Each structure stands twice: as structure tokens, then as C-alpha cells.
Amino acid sequence: MRELQLGLRLLLGGGRGNRVRFLLMTLGAAIGVCCLAMVLAIPGILAAQDARKAAREPDCITERPGTCGSGSRSALELTRTDPFGARPMTRIFLAAGTTPVDPPPGLSEFPSAGEVFVSPRLHEELQETPGLSQLFPGKEVGRIAPEGLAHPDELYAYIGVGRAELAEHQRITHFGMSYTSSPTVEGSALDIVRFTLAGVVLLPLAVFLTVCAQLSAASRNRRLAALRLLGMSQKGVQRVNAAETVAAALLGAVMGLAGYWLVNQVVARIGLPGFSWYPSDGSLSLSTVAVCLVGCPLLAWFAGRVGGRRAAAKPLEVRRSAVTKAPAKWGMLPLVPGLGVVTGYCVAGATGHAPRDTELSSILMPIAVVLVGAGLVLTLPLLSGALARRVAESARSLSLGLAMRRHEVEPSGAFRVATGLVLLVFGASLVQGVLIELDQVTRNTSSTQMYELDLDAMAYEQERAFEKVPGVQGHAVEAASWADPDVWPSPRLHVVVATCDGVRAMVPDVGPCVEGQSAVLVNSANANLDEEVQPGAAFSFHLQNEKGERRDFTLKVPRETVLFRDNSGLSAFDSGQVLVPPSALPEGFRLEEATLTLSSHSVPDVVRNVLDGIGGVDPTIEVRTPGINVSALEQVAIVRTLLAVGMVLGMIIGVAAYLVAATDRAVERRPQVTALALLGARPRTLRTVQAVQVVVPLAIGLALAVVLGKMAESSYLVTGGGDIFWDGDGVPLLLACALGAVVVATLGSLPLIGRRIDPELIRRD
Q: For residue 272, what pLDDT is reported?
């Protein structure tokens, strides 16, 4: 305790320079803890949103098993989710029964027939887009409260209807389940976020906090060495050193948590692109607060004890400014296994043996990235020191020789100055790899959008109305032949009832087609035909008219073919389907168990208008949109936003680490600069020396970061299951960023050499 008190007394009475250093350490710890709290708060925000989603899940539980599917006493529910741009819009149709049901979360009463409750964001969209109201039959009577919404920007509505209006439905007895069927971010996507944030934020953050805990290390070591020479024990000296760093870290942790609270309140109300949350969702848990309040001071305590170890063990060497030992080669230990795993995956991808996202890869990749990043940091002083020694031996320039000799005797300066920016470039490569993988998952290259509706779920006049929806270019009916249940396997034929113009509207690249003639459709991009599709083979289909009369229809496979080409994977047609003209069917009859497929341009505004038109005909009908997975698009938008937040935090940490370390190093070197100035060194020479000392380790680190980062990115793409392993588009951007960092670091180091010579700085020497 006495050593701790002495450390605090030295802190308060050590002069203005000591207090300024303490302030810098505190501000650095505050920035680091604020960034750490932001990263740790992300899982809590997602969990809070999933909890509200689970609380509104409809469910049916009765005393007697199996009774939820029958009877007229239970309430009915139907959920429809449609794409609204890149966001999902959810409509919940509710029909009351004789058994009362508590209203869903966010509503004060169960909706009656004709009543509509919407979320605040959906209310704004309805005001801006009047045509959207066709999807919400009834009168808007209220808003959904926050406890019934996952996030403020959610498009959600409860619509009260009559029981006869819900042909498809689910019986419900209450709202609320232990889990949600549509989590905000799937587990695999959340693993991607964790993996990326660990490399982009947490690893640089640990380095930054360590740098902040070792500010003015040389001055403090001299003071600690004096205490050791006065008779204080080694452990006592280390505790005195740790007292200052722990006090700064603890105060900085409190300031960082306060800063996070303020940032959360502001950003939650403004929102981020694709991701929003309520301020209460961002509240930190007790475990997170404990990690920040205990983890940061603990790291500072460890860094303080390690930093004061040499002063406690060899005080005379410290007081006399003896040359420090060269960095130990064990710093390369993490780099070797990490680089081995990364290289192995790169070789596997180059030789065509990609593992395709196995469980082992999902464990090895994050470990390998962390090892490579840590190895890059620990290896930097060793490599830059060795290079400085070789350059100094052959240098003929005074400025270069002085810079390299100084760097040779103090290679740890490279660790503090260059690491933040080096890890930032390394993390940028990882983020680019994740974005490439996400782009492969969500990219839609087709110029045509399809809409699939069950034909049996609509009346005949509705079918004609759907075909005339504004924006619809073509339509077709798809069905399969009747299969005998007593014969297995029973061959089946798939047909498309459409005109030639309808086929061209759905697939632009179509060969010669004779109107009114049946033909086999063949995709030239994938011309594999089933064995059953042989000319002359007969297949039976069931037909029905609007009066309920049924009839069988026999179709023989024609010899004629119609070629088309589509390699997007989203075409409404496949090779082997038979194109049947509408005139071939008996008048007034249509195929049973068929699908009505509509087509339009894939422009987002056109897709939105077509969906609105379909909703105007029947708001409750299910519409399938191949190529548009709104849940996946929403999750990708959230992941992109979180990655952008991680990059911003990483940039803040990297720039802050550079500024703090470069400024501290310049202040620490004032005695050496003064001595050189008294010996006759010109200011231009001193500025050149200072710039070279910063540029050399930074340039080496950035070059390694670009190379190792691209290798880590490629190995991640190899294990991601996509088609792209090697991407060179991002290399010029990374090189430009690295070059820009070197230029900024060079310019930033020049003003750190003062013009005034103060002999008092070397009075003791």
C-alpha cells in the first residue's frame, strides 16, 4: 500500500510534464474503453432485438394435444413478408375467435376486423407511398409500441380481418415463444462479425492500451531506477510504476463508459445505414462493465510491471542509459503457425481442393488471423532492427546513419509508433474479403424479376387481374403431370402454359418460336434433359374450371424445340419443360396444383410497384420472389454496417495510437535532439532523422500488412464456399492507403523537432 501511495504522490507532484502524461494516458484509456464497450455491446443489441421478436411469435398451446388445428374458437393468424426495397415488410393478419387472446406486444387490444396497427416507420412510408395502402385493407387506428418492434425502422403491421378472409391460416392461443424463427443476424453471419471485429478492433485495441500504459517509458524508468538505488525492493518499484498506470486506466475506463453512454444515446436516435436500435438495447450489462472497469486497469497493471522490470532489476544501466537488448526472436512464434494455416488454405484453393467451410476451418481461420496479426506486431521490432543495422553499416548519409543507429538501439519504438496503422491496413484486407463473400451471396445478375403465386389459392378473375398488374411484362402457368401414387418412381413432365411473347418477356434470349405450337424448352447454357422427356411420350394432367368441374388432359412430348439461354439460375424455365400454348387447353379450364409466374424488370421501383399491385388484388396471397431474399439482404446490410463501424473504430484506434506514440517518442527524444543540436547538427538534418525513424518501421510494417492481409483474405475466401479466391481489385486501394499513411506520418513527424535549444534538458547528462 505504501508503494501505491508513493506512486500517486509522484504522480501529483511530478510537475506539469508528468501531469500532461497522465492526462494523455487517461484520454487514451478512455478512447480504448469506449471502443471496447461499443464492440461488446453489439451482441447485447442483437439479443434484445431477438427477444422482442420471440415475444411476438404466435403460438398455439392447449391442454389437449392436437386440438389447435381444428375448431372455430381459436383466433387465426396469417403472416406475409414482402420485400420493400432491401428491407422486409411484415403483415400479420389476425381474426378473432370466441376464445379471447391477449393482444401481441406493442398493442393495447386485439385488432378487430377492419382495424390496422402499423409501426411508426411504416406509417411514414404509407404517407409517402399512397399505393402501398392496397396491402393493408382497413383503417389505421394506432401505432405499435416499441416493445412490439425489433428496432425503430422496422416495417411491421397487424391487420384485423374476418375469419372467412383467411383461407390459409394458423390457429393461435397466445403470443410469445422461447426463440424467434427470424433472428436479426443468423449464427453464421454473427460468427463473421465476431471474427472480423476481433482482427479489426480488439487486436489493435490491446496494442493501443498497452502503448498508452507505457507513455514516457524512458523518463519513468530513470525515476524508478533512482528509487531502486535508494533502497526500494524490486517488487516495490514495480508497484510504484503500476500505481500511476492503473490510476490512469481506471479513470480512463470510467470516462470511456460515460463516453459510450453518450454515443449510444445519440447514435441510437440517429441510426446507422441498415441498422438501428433503441437506446435501451445498447445498455451495457454488468459483465461488460466489469470487463471494462477491471480488464483495462489489469492490462495497465501488467504493462506497468513489465515496463518497470528493467529499472527494478538493473537500475545502474537505466540511469546511465545503457544500450538495451535486441528484441527476442520468440516474437516470431505466433507468426509461424498462423502463417502456416493461411498458406495451407491458399495452396488448397490454388490446387482446387478448397475445404468449403468445414467445422475445422471455422475454428482454424479466426485463430490463424489472430496469430498472424499478433505475429506481425511482435515481429516488427525484430525485422526493423535488423534492417536498421544493415543500412547503418553501409549508409553514407549522416541523416540516414543517425536515424538507423538510433533505431538499432531502440527497436521497440517501432512497436509503439507503427503498430496501429499497420494493423489498420491488415484489418482492411480482412474486411474486403468478408465484403467479397457477402457480395457473392446476395448478388442478383438477372435483369428480370419473377413473382410466383399458387394458382389454386386464387379465383379465376383474380388470375386475370394479376396478369394485368402494371409493370408485369409476361406471365406463364407452370405445372407437373399427374403421378400415380402406386407406381414408384413415376415419371413426370413439367409444362409451361404461355405464349411465345410471354416466354420472351421472361427470358430475353429466346430462339425461333412458333406461336400456337407446343415445343420442348432447351436452355443452351444447361441443356441436360430428363430421360422421360422423349418425343411421343404421353403424360396426363388434371384440369378444373371455375364451376369445380374436373377433366383429364393428355399431352404428348413434341419433337419441336425452342432454344433459350439463361445462366443466372433465376430463370422461370428449365431445360426439358414443354411449352404449351393457352389455346391447347379446353376453354375455361386450367391446370391443377399449378403456379402462376409473373415477370417484370428487376429495377427496385418496378418491383415495388408490382408487389403493390399484387397486394391490391389480394393482400393475403403469398408471393415468392426468386432472387430476392429480403431476410438475407437485411442481414447483409446489418453485417456491412457493423463492419463499417469496426473499420471506423479501427481507424480511430490506429490513428490515436500513432499520434500518441509519435508525440511521446518525440518528447522522450528531446535530450538526444538537444545534444545533437549543441554538437552542430542542422534542424533540417534533425527533421530528416526524425522522419526516417518513423518511416522505416512504418513502411516495413505496412508492406508486411498488405502481403499478409491479402493472404489472410484469400484463405478466408477459400474457406467461405464462394467462387472468388483471389481478388486483385482491392490491392491498389490498400497500396494507396499504405502510401498515404507513410506520407502523413512523415509530414506529422517534422513539426516535432523544436527550434529552441534548451540545455536544461541535458543538464543531468
A: 85
